[in-house]
Amino acid sequence: MRARTAQDRQLLELIDPIAESLGLEVVRVRLMTGSKRQRLQVMAERPSDHDISVEQCAKLSRAVSEVFDAADPIAGEYMLEVSSPGIDRPLTRPIDFDLFEGEEARLETDRMIEGRKRFKGVLAGYEDGNVLIDLDGEEETALIPFDWLSDAKLVLTDALMKRGAAIRAARGEPEDDGLPEGEAEDTTTDTTTPSEDNA
């Protein structure tokens, strides 16, 4: 889930060791190709506290640009965007479901489970390859195979907003009340660098 397509997976293989050399972990890589200019989105964080500074985003962006300029893994012009996972972050690794146990999440699977592919509820952890979630309106905890997930992210709630505000306060950043409903992203750590295909 950290990479969705075959090309995303190839890019992730290049980016992972770069991030690790800087003491970071890649949460997700997505190459967006819908607009005129392609956009490579890299979400990363420190494994120690699951946060990232503006300076670390900038360092990772420069390091990825250097490697990509040499390796040339993307045809055509693209924009590189390095950021934090944001408040209502994607859940892409098994550890995420333990870290955010007790938070609301939306899950989507790549196949039908009891007649549906979309699920919403409170995360109850991760166990034996399964995501545990207490679904809305159901008494028993559901087990959804991690390998069947096509998408998973936290739901933006008041509790999650408070958690995000606490993180920003710890960084010494001002509170931001202007986040779009349901689409909040911690853009304070975004670094955007244009890159061009040298071929």
TrEMBL record:
Organism field: Brevundimonas intermedia
Pfam families: DUF150_C, RimP_N
Location of the region described as Disordered in the Swiss-Prot/TrEMBL record: 167-199
GO biological process, one term: ribosomal small subunit assembly
Subcellular location: Cytoplasm
Family to which this protein belongs: Belongs to the RimP family.
Transmembrane spans: none
Keyword entries, A-Z: Cytoplasm, Ribosome biogenesis
Role description: Required for maturation of 30S ribosomal subunits.
Residue ranges constituting the Ribosome maturation factor RimP C-terminal domain according to the UniProt record: 91-157
Biased composition, class Acidic residues, residue ranges: 174-188
Segments forming domain Ribosome maturation factor RimP N-terminal: 14-88
Record protein name field: Ribosome maturation factor RimP
GO cellular component entries: cytosol
Chain's gene name: rimP
